[in-house]
Amino acid sequence: MMLALFLIVTNVKGDWKNDESDPIDWVGSLIFALSVSAFFIGVSELPDPLHIFYSVIGILLFIVFIKHQNQAKAPLIRIQALQANKALVGSIYSSLLMYSANFPIVFLLSLYLQYIHNLSPSEAGSMILIETVIMMILSPITGRLSDIYGPRVITTAGGLVFSSGFMVLVWVDMDTSMAFIIIGLALLGTGFGLFSTPNNSSALGSVSKDKLSIVSSIMNLSRTMGNMFSTAFVLMMMSLILGDVAIQPENYPLLLLVVQITFCVSLILSLSASYISFYKR
């Protein structure tokens, strides 16, 4: 991070700066932070009555946030302008869905490999890195393909390949071979590698230069929210199905059920992202 900051300061001259800056909407920032915190604290331990209350408070505060943004002189997000930009809205929604679908892989597949396949934490992490490595290799290539063929085709193809990975992994059981899991991870990495860079390019290319920082922040927020949504969902499923018990051999079928249900939901989310990428840009 320090290296990136040093390179920006020393090599990027002043044309990236915006001379005019709006005041920060501190009230909107506070409402949004409280909304997100209350909602995710609540969802993480459903169906506990107190956490249901937190979830409802989070939703109500988010409604208040939207109303505040429509009335504020210098809002964090200009809702009406955002709604009018079809390409940007499509990129935000598809990013939110794809990151929501992807995040459970790191947590749940790691648990599955460690408990059911008896891998060490480092071995399980190395296995999951297959997806990341493929993404890293494909990202610069897909950026160039997006410039040639447009982001719509590439992101849609990426979403469908990503979905095919979950179509494979949703069938994991107590006796699934490692080769089967590697195929699923390779499809996930290929799909996400095809999707990620063109989707960001589509969002950034849909606005003027003076709005790039705002759009970049919104895209980053959509990724973070996607991770948080999936984390809350996984915690909720663990709480509902496994409860507070430790993961022991007799509970492995319950852990497997959590994995299968979550991967089914991830499959639906990734297919929805593919639909949005094709029809909503």
Automatic annotation (TrEMBL):
Localization per Swiss-Prot or TrEMBL: Membrane
Record's bilayer topology term: Multi-pass membrane protein
UniProtKB keywords: Membrane, Transmembrane, Transmembrane helix
Keyword Ribonucleoprotein: no
Transmembrane segments: 24-43, 50-68, 88-112, 124-141, 153-172, 179-197, 228-247, 254-278
Pfam families given in the database record: MFS_1
Primary subcellular site in the record, as a coarse category: membrane
Coiled coil (residue ranges): none
PANTHER family assigned: MAJOR FACILITATOR SUPERFAMILY, TRANSPORT PROTEIN
Record's protein name: MFS transporter
Biological source species: Marinomonas phaeophyticola
Phylogenetic placement of the source organism: Bacteria, Pseudomonadati, Pseudomonadota, Gammaproteobacteria, Oceanospirillales
